[in-house]
Amino acid sequence: MLKVTKFGGSSMADAGQYQKIRDILNSDPARQVVVVSAAGKRNSKDHKITDLLYLCHAHVQYGVDCTPIFEMITSRYLEIRDELKIELDLESEFAALKKRLDAKSVSQDELASRGEYFSAKLMAAYLGYRFIDSADWVFFGMDGAVDQKKTYDALKALFIPGQGVVIPGFYGLLPDGNIRTFTRGGSDITGALAAAALDADVYENWTDVSGILMADPRIVDDPQAIPEVTYNELRELSYSGAQVLHEGTIFPVREKNIPLNIRNTNAPEDAGTMIKEAFDTPADPDRFITGITGKKDFTILSMSKRGMSNQVGVLRKVLTVLERHNMSVDYVPNGIDNVSVVLPTATIAPHLYTILGEIQKEVEPDTLDVHDQIAVVAAVGRHMAFRPGISGKVFAALGEAGINIRMINQGPDELNLIFGVDNKDFKEAIRVLYTSFVK
């Protein structure tokens, strides 16, 4: 059994969090591979180390002294080291980095990656594990994409089964030898790549919540965690607005059919959320909704034309107009003689009247209307499929709460039920669904 564990910024924030990680690792000998993020916030007024590193680079580029900011970064790591009584010379490495920074000889990506680098060096020394630099095994191509084969082969060659290792997340190496970072949150990708490379039995992603929540805690008070979710459901939740995982995290482990377990560093006894391709039996067969999410501020372009259903190419013409303006359509609800397209308002607003004019010219609809201030809510769940009456129950609950439905969209696989409401009803719609079908 081999488990790859990844610990996020909140799990690396201070010496106390390092001790929690040590206890988690010691509780299961299968946890041999540890991927870490840069130190995160210790409290709401604190700063993430990565943010400070980016700020340092910006200061230097504009000729502003970044010494006070750099000292904040240095003192944070030295404080962790000294509190844990780790014997590790960080001062010389920080001094060398500051010299390069002042000389403008360190790239933004390399500087930003040092948060993870120093976290991993500290954690490896604290645990007595071997340090493996991500620059020695995560390889990008010139197009910026990860070279999976080269990356996987490199880590397999470096890893010795039974020997604990600590790896910094977030970065790798370009063909020219320069450091390249992933987008923010990219340490999740590093962990997934490590799990895929080593054919791990489980990829554990440790954070500060006990799994993926069934609804936004800013909208629903104390929402439950989702015990089990399929990769397809996760994709639907993420696309519809849930802040779940870095998008690139899913693909490496899904390709290898490796379960992904979201856990809480501060509550390691909680089982968290298990993510797999499929589950043999449902955790709760009576619950048909896995999660509820959504986003505000959409625009619906709605058009009707008599006999539209018998005319070839009407929808294609509409989509071609939108494509010319580089518009990505989120949803396309339609009827017999009408069709609508749903897009983020911020995307279409600058081009709205030009697009309306082109649609009017090319489609010649009988009516062409614009509906703004629309929120899209999605109820996602693999257990909704082929169960009669689900939509009726959902819309009845919303109707009883006085919420008007402006748009309905559901795919043939019945993995989700998507509907539009006015922006002002967005939060209440999510609360009604959660209270009616989850709580």
* Main sheet makeup: 8 strands, mixed
The SSE string, one letter per element, is EHEHHHHEHEEEHEEHHEEEHEHHEHEEH
Number of continuous helical runs: 14
Gyration radius, in Å: 25 Å
Q: Based on CA inertia axes, which overall geometry fits? A: globular
Fold blueprint:
Blueprint lengths: L2 E5 L7 H12 L4 E6 L12 H13 L5 H17 L7 H12 L5 H20 L2 E2 L16 H11 L6 E4 L2 E3 L5 E3 L5 H11 L4 E6 L20 E3 H9 L7 H9 L4 E5 L8 E4 L14 E14 L9 H11 L13 E7 H4 L3 H12 L3 E14 L9 H11 L6 E3 L6 E7 L3 H12 L2
Parallel strand pairs: 1-2, 1-7, 2-4, 3-4, 7-9, 8-10
Antiparallel strand pairs: 5-6, 9-10, 11-12, 11-13, 13-15, 14-15
Helix pairs in contact: 2-3, 2-5, 6-7, 7-9, 10-12
Task: Describe what you observe in this structure.
This protein has an 8-stranded mixed β-sheet, with helices on both faces. The chain has a 5-stranded antiparallel β-sheet with strand order 12-11-13-15-14. Helix 2 (49-61) packs antiparallel against helix 5 (108-127) and helix 7 (187-197) runs parallel beside helix 9. The protein has helices at residues 15-26, 49-61, 67-83, 91-102, 108-127, 148-158, 187-197, 231-239, 247-255, 314-324, 345-348, 352-363, 390-400, 426-437, and strands at residues 3-7, 31-36, 130-131, 165-168, 171-173, 179-181, 202-207, 228-230, 260-264, 273-276, 291-304, 338-344, 367-380, 407-409, 416-422. It is built from 14 helices and 15 strands.
